[in-house]
Amino acid sequence: MKNVIPIHTNSWKKLTIHFEKIKDIHLIDFFKNDNKRYQRHSFLFQNKILIDMSKNRIDSETISLLLELAEEMNLSNQISSMFTGEKINFTENRSVLHTALRNLGESSIFVDGVDVMPKISFVLNKMKTFSEKIIHGKWKGYSGKKIRNIVNIGIGGSDLGPKMVTMALNPYRNHLNVFFLSNIDSTELFNFLKVNDFETTIFLISSKTFTTKETITNATIIKDCFLKRNNCIKSMEKHFFAITANITAALDFGIVKNNIFQLWDWVGGRYSLWSSMGLSIVLSIGFDNFIKLLRGAYDMDMHFQYEKLSNNIPVLLGLIGIWYNNFFHSETELIVPYDQYLSEFPSYIQQSSMESNGKNIDKNGNHVLWNTSPVIWGSVGINGQHSFYQLLHQGTRLIPCDFIASIFSHHPIQNNQEILLSNFFAQTHALAFGNFFQKNMNYKNNCIENEIYVEKFKYFEGNRPSNSFLLKKLDPYSLGALIALYEHKIFTQGIILNICSFDQWGVELGKKISDDIFNSLLYRTRSVNYDSSTNSLIKFYHDYKVHK
Ligand code: F6P
Fold first, then answer.
1. Of all helices (H) and strands (E), which one includes residue 262?
2. Ligand 1 midpoint to CA 158 (Å)
3. How far from 239 is each of 95, 133, 226, 253, CA to CA, in Å?
4. Structure confidence at residue 527 (pLDDT)
5. Which residue among 386, 456, 547, 548 is the active-site one?
6. DSSP state of 9
7. Distance CA 538, CA 546 (A)
8. In sequence order, what E strands does 450-534 have?
9. Residue of 355, 363, 488, 489 marked catalytic
């Protein structure tokens, strides 16, 4: 079956005409002309998260045309296909069922005629039992001591999600220390080995494929150090665990069967924190809080699956993203959490969006003639104000922003939270309206020539769009919902862009070439033959090592 080409749809053509009509309209005028604009474009999710999309360069016609586009691209059917386990990851012939992981046994979901829910429940129960033993000190290390440290060894989706959630939910954490080891650069490993106390530490080797070089190399080095210290393979059973879909490779590594926490090929790496890949989360915040995280995501799933498109928060956010990315040709999207605990959130969404939708071939196998994923970037907002916000306000690029904050601080001290939030509100206002509301705008008329000149540099034109996400409190439920919201936004965009959001072939070539170069670095005699730049860089490396 041929897939619909987005730019050939009627709605895309209408959007192109509509864009010409509204591209220069200022947000000041959008607000002036519609006194219900905020009410029209803001949503309260489960009385927990307020999402305000009114500061976007859209009007009701924009939204209705974008919704028409969603209809023409069969978004509703595609949403059902994902939830019911159809093999929508067609380049790998896999279902995409991270949503089943938070379904908590409410209904059966079949893959190849087999209900996946009993498997999910089995692994969840295993995570519960194991985590309780560790947290309550019933699981002892080889020398009889209680476990105090958890080390997750993994990279990409096997690192970013658990790390981000563990950090975000820090106020819910217990006494256990959790570390994340991802980098193959031995600096991280070196520092870790210096301080690690093997007797009280467990290692979670987290790799869906169990073939990722960074993870397996680091895990092997740690295993060797461990065995050097106590020289007893049996004692590994107390300390080494695998989280993987590749059971054979984990057994070959030396992990005993009981210590393997399974996941399945229908869980994408970047969507895996809800699976056994979330074991480090369960260990650090406890099973009940993990269930609340799943519950938040589940409620967002229900909203995404059943709410009509015109009120569907992830759908609307996805469509507005397409509007900027393909009509305004904005290249990037910024995520700025005004909450220290969410500092890893932009990196997490970066992988979700850019690995999912950073594609240039459409579902028909043709080169796309439209823009796919924007570059996602960001960091803690308040710090950004003192570094890159200058460009947001007065630079030449249009950068749509997502502002995220929590009303309630877990650690209120004096008026810090009010200062933080006043900045959050001020920035979205200043970006949208520039100096418009400032009384001193008329000052220009009375000042001398040089002052008029300098005034030009102080001018803020505004009209810079943003979404505001205001959480009542950053708790497991709200975080689960927020993550799922972004997942579904990205899904929506993948459907509109007519690409496969669930493979990641683009990361393979570099891995293959690095294997070849690695051999040449180790065995100098083996020459490589790439381009003259790469060959010369490798030669420089060899020469330097010889003459050092
Ligand atoms: O190289 C990219 C990638 O395949 C990601 O998609 C994935 O999250 C990461 O590597 C880790 O993969 P694995 O869990 O198989 O080690």
1. strand 260-262
2. 7
3. 33, 13, 9, 13
4. 75
5. 386
6. S
7. 13
8. 466-473
9. 355
The C-alpha atoms of residue 515 and residue 283 are separated, in whole angstroms, by 35
The 8-class DSSP code of residue 370 comes to S
307 is catalytic: no
Q: Say if residues 479 and 293 touch (Cβ distance below 8 Å).
A: yes
Identify the residues whose C-beta falls under 6 Å from ligand 1: 155-158, 207-209, 212, 215, 269-270, 355, 504, 507
Tokens linked to 76:
């509703």
pLDDT digits (tens, 9 = 90+) for 479-516: 999 999 999 999 999 999 999 999 999 999 999 999 99
Q: Decide if 245 contacts 208 (C-beta within 8 A).
A: yes
Task: Name the DSSP letter for residue 3.
Answer: P
Q: Which one of 13, 511, 539, 542 is the catalytic residue?
A: 511
Q: Note the pLDDT of residue 446.
A: 55
In the chain, where are the structural domains located? 6-72+308-503, 111-290, 508-547
**Of 313, 321, 309, nearest in space to 43 by CA:** 313
Rounded Cα–Cα distance for residues 102 and 319 (Å): 25
Q: Decide: 158 and 242 in contact? Cβ < 8 Å.
A: no
Q: Please, what CATH class does the domain formed by 6-72+308-503 belong to? A: alpha beta
Question: Do residues 320 and 58 touch, judged by C-beta distance below 8 A?
Answer: yes
Partners of 115 in the β-ladder? 110
Q: Which residue, 364, 399, 362, 406, is CA-closest to 384?
A: 399
386 catalytic per annotation: yes
Class of 111-290 in CATH:
alpha beta
- Token digits of residue 106: 């409410």
d(CA 38, CA 432): 13
Classify residue 258 as exposed, middle or buried by CB count within 10 Å of its CB (0-12, 13-18, 19+): exposed
DSSP for 50-83, written as a single string: EEE-TTSS--HHHHHHHHHHHHHTTHHHHHHHHH
Query: What mean pLDDT is reported for the chain?
Result: 95
**Given this chain, do its domains 6-72+308-503 and 111-290 carry the same CATH topology?**
yes
Which pTM was predicted? 0.96
Burial 124-134 (b: 16+ CB within 10 A, else e): bebbbebbeeb
